[in-house]
Structure formats: C-alpha cells, structure tokens
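Hey,

Quick one before I head out. I ran the complex with guanosine-5'-diphosphate overnight. Inputs first:
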Amino acid sequence: MAKNIVIFGSQWGDEGKGKIVDILAEECSAVVRFQGGNNAGHTLVVNGEKSILHLIPSGILHENKKCYIGNGVVLDPFVFFKEIDNLSLCGIDTSPKRLGISNKTHVIMPYHCKLDAAREAAKTGSNKIGTTGRGIGPCYEDKMHRCGIRASDFKDIALLKEKIAESLVEKNILFKALYNTEPMQADEVYEILKPVIERIIPYLCDVSSAIENMDGAILFEGAQGIHLDIDHGTYPFVTSSNTVSACAAIGSGCAPSDLERMLAIVKAYTTRVGGGPFPTELMDETGSFLQNAGGEFGSTTGRARRCGWLDLVILRESVRLCGPTELVLTKLDVLSGLKEIQICVAYEYKGEQLQYPPQEQNALAEVKPVYETLAGWEEDISSCKSRAELPENTQKYLARIEELLGVPIGMISVGPDRIQTFTK
Ligand code: GDP
Ligand code: IMO
Ligand code: MG
C-alpha cells in the first residue's frame, strides 16, 4: 500500500518541490499544504506547459486527487480565487468537491500586506529581510497574538467585523505613529473582503477529519525550505512559519506517526532569495553561470536568486531536523559544463571546524566554507532515464552526497518537465 509522504525543501526554498509533488501526487489520494502562504511559488511543467502555484496544492493538475489547504497555512483569499480562476480557464476542476480549506486556516487581511510593506520599507541596508511582501509575517503574528481571523470566521459576519475592528486598533497606531501611513477603517476592510466571503464558505471543511477518512496515501506539501524555518533557520532572515517535516502533522491536523516517507528535496547547488547569510554564495562568473543555466529568477517575486555551491553543512542540519528517508536531487542538469564542482563539507569558525551551522545570530555570516573539489562533466544529461546512464563524474557527485549525508538519493530530476525525472 502506498505510504503517506512529506515533501520539504532542504535549503532556502525553490528546490523544485512543486515538480516532485506533482509527480508523486499520482500515487496518492490527496495533497495537503501545511504551512506558508502565497510567499511560495511552486512550478509544474507538464508537456512543456508551465503552471506556477502559490497557494493551491501542486496535486491540482491530477483530476482525481483531492487537495487541501491545512490549518498551518496563511491564506490570502484574493490570491486563492485568482489561482482558481486561472486553473478553471485551463479546464481544471477547482470546485469544493475536490478542494478544501481548513476552518482553522488563518486569513491574510489587507492590513497584513500593508504592515509587511511598511516594515520592509522602514528597514535599511543589510537589515532588510527581503520578504515577499505578501503579509505572511503579520498574519502569523496575529495568529500567535490570538487576534487572527480564521477562515471559519467568514461564516459569522458579526464576529468577523468585531475581530477586524479589534485587530485594527493596534495596527492603526503603528500605521500612523511609526510608519507615517494612512490608517485603515474596519468598514473599509470589510468592504474589500465582501466579494470573497460568500464564495469561500463552500470550500471550508474539517481537513483533519477529511484526511483521516481518506482511502489511500496523503502527500504533505511543504513550502519554503528548512533554513527559512522560524526556529531552526537563519533567524531573523527567515519566514514566519516552521518548515521542518514535523510540521506536516501540526499544520494539517494528523498524528506525527502518520508521517511515513520523508522526502528532502535538494537542489544540486544552492540558491537563496532575499537577505541573509549564505556561506557558499558565488559572486563570480560561476554564480552567473548557475543563475542563467538554472533560470534562477523567483517564481513569486521575479527577483534574481543568489546562487552558490552545494552546502553539506546546511544539508546535514536539515537531515538532523527532518529525518528524511530519502533525498530527491533536482536540477542536476544545470551543473553540466562545469570543469570542477565544489561542495562545502564543513565550516571554519573561530579556529574550529564545524559540521553543523553555528546557532548564534550573525555567526553564519562569519564562517568560511571548507570545500572539497570534484570533477565536473560536459555531457547534457537532461534526457537521461536512469542513474546508470549518467556520466561517471555525475555518478561520483551523487555517491559523495549520499556518503556525506548518510541518506540515499531515491529520485533524480534532470529538467523541469514531469518526464525528466527518474527513481533509483
Ligand atoms: P519550489 O518552490 O521548490 O517548488 O521550486 P520553484 O518552482 O520555485 O523553482 C524551481 C525551478 O526549477 C522551476 O522553474 C522549475 O520548473 C525548475 N526545475 C525543477 N526541477 C528542475 C530540474 O531538474 N532541472 C531544471 N533545469 N529545472 C528544474
Ligand atoms: P518556495 O515554497 C524562496 C523568503 C523571502 C524572504 C524570507 C521571508 O517557493 O520555496 P516572507 O514573505 O516569507 O516573510 O519572506 O523568506 N521566502 C522564500 N524564498 N522560496 C520560497 O518559497 C520563499 N518563501 C519565502 O524571499 O527572504
Ligand atoms: Mg519556489
């Protein structure tokens, strides 16, 4: 019987999670997003046709699969319906029969986006986090502050209006006094939301119960990457949710023992969007090569992604935090044409060699990567169909990663299309 699968990014996001979810959805009955919001951009390519999903689970292209947005997600209802409308234009069924939102999911409100933008604008230089500006942080803040709007509040207009008014009391003081920007009125916010309130209600459901009663396996789709995790990432240059695999249970409402196969998605090199330390970043022509060959421009904001060598210290930490049963190596084709490839196997920090990232704020910006050099390969590998078909040096690269991390590579991706993937 197919097992439940958790898919998570093991670096700083954009590892190719969407593509792998789309492929593995085939063997599952439902796909659940469990954290993050429309800061995510998950790209699927089927028969050369590209779709980017920010909120709706990446299983939606498979007609007979259920898709759920779990309680751990923060949902912008306008983005949700924009995505639904685009998918409907392509003939995809996005009705509540196959797509559900947890009653407990927190809603991103217009004042969250405004606060996100105001805060980023007020930060300067290297203090800028470079958020996606989608209101993610402020929405999670309200959840923790216990004044958030949950999707089920849309069923009780009096409660909704009361909560909007209550939430705006503090926000408006910040808007006026700190950010010198216009306050928002509760009525105005309600009027903005009105068009989506009735429309969203049919999608609301008990996701926990839906997945408990599902025949067949569940696929839990993570967003962002382990080093953007609010606790374990490169704080404060992180997102505002937990991205580690354990959160698949919390963010969808099942028991941790229901999580069976844990798949760490690993890009064959490293990228990062936004601010924050990045020890193996390449500011030279190899960095530009990776950026161009890998098309490393953000799926959400279009920003250029910073690029660098594969960092095994970062990955070792992801293995420790998430317990992957296998690795999925993506974008291996991008490395073709490099004479030599470096992998970072340790950090030098204050005269010591570290196997794991240091935990103090700003310390990661001070480490020096210790590199091991491997031979590259010239061949185009984008149509390879098995590991045995790969050039010898490519196989050595894979074997060294497995050896250093102690986890097998179960799946390899050599191009953006669904078919450019093979299992071990
Ligand atoms: P996600 O956020 O983890 O889902 O990743 P993104 O979709 O933001 O970024 C991954 C990008 O790489 C997308 O443009 C994918 O189409 C593309 N991609 C995924 N796997 C491969 C691969 O194996 N090779 C190449 N060349 N591109 C890939
Ligand atoms: P996927 O799911 C890459 C980054 C932002 C910023 C930081 C905080 O496509 O891999 P936020 O808007 O979340 O408060 O921004 O996190 N970030 C991502 N980087 N991929 C993502 O998602 C990201 N989601 C957020 O660039 O540095
Ligand atoms: Mg992405």
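The two ends are 19 Å apart (CA to CA).

Talk tomorrow,
K.
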